[in-house]
Amino acid sequence: MLRHAFFFVTALITAVPAAAETVHFVTEEFPPFSFSRGGIASGALPEIVNATCGLLQWHCEIEVLPWRRALQQAEDGEVDGIFTVIQSPARRKEFLITPMVVTSGYDFYTLRSNHFQFTQPDDLRGRQIGVYGPSGTSFVLQESLKNTPDVDIKLVTNNHRLLLMLNAGRFGEKGLVLLNRDVARHLIEHEYLYALRNAGHLTSISYGIGFSRKRVSPVKFQAFNRGLNTLRNNGQLATIVQRYGLQPAN
User: pTM, whole model, 2 decimals?
Assistant: First the structure.
């Protein structure tokens, strides 16, 4: 009788499904890559993360925060992952970074009354440039201008405010801002900022998903990468990215 009871209890224990892996991500307002809609993280990157977590049967939570707070939490190991992340020395030091999932570019924008067109860094001498930062965008701008003196860089806390300031003439008649071209397209269309125009391309950029080195093991990171690779191979990643008017990374 005791033997039968033992096997019955054992069967009950093995029949209980293992708890799903819980992974906490943070991101920012960076439409159309990521944004909050009704308190829910939306956009291309949240869809990709959720689809990957679904394949892995992980329970994933995504919180949209101001970038500085999101970055601090990820660097401190308070959360598992963060996006969007570029390949830079500072990011590689803190994060395990997935293969890039989406490609975009950093472009200059100005008022339509300003006839400036960027062709090379020396064109920026004596000018004031607004940029969202500290961020990947401001890092790339500063790296690009290492050998260009007399450029006044103004950091602004988010891209939305950056374009509104440009539209209001806060950077002067000859003022410029640098930001992601897909974010600029989204904000100009949604905020009707048609007094602004593209003033030239600085560089291409790709984004991936970062995992905290302080919190996530290489084994867990590689598991996520395998799921992400499955989405890439079956075409689901490209479908998600293109639905937002974006370009998948090679």
Answer: 0.86
Which residue ranges form the domains of the chain, and what is each CATH number?
19-103+206-248 (3.40.190.10), 104-205 (3.40.190.10)
Average of pLDDT values for 136-162?
A: 94
Cα separation values, 94 from 27, 86, 205, Å: 16, 12, 19
State the Cα–Cα distance between residues 182 and 232, nearest whole angstrom: 21
How far apart are the C-alpha atoms of 185 and 247, rounded to whole Å? 14
pLDDT in tens, 107-122: 999 999 999 999 999 9
Q: How far apart are CA 98 and CA 78, in angstroms?
A: 19
Quickly tell me which residue has 């020395």 as its tokens.
89
Contacts for 148-151: CB closer than 8 Å, 24+ residues apart: 148/121, 148/122, 148/124, 149/125, 150/125, 150/126, 151/124, 151/125, 151/126, 151/127
Number of residues that this document lists for the chain: 250
175-213 per-position pLDDT tens digit: 899 999 999 999 999 999 999 999 999 999 999 999 999
- pLDDT average, residue stretch 128-133: 94
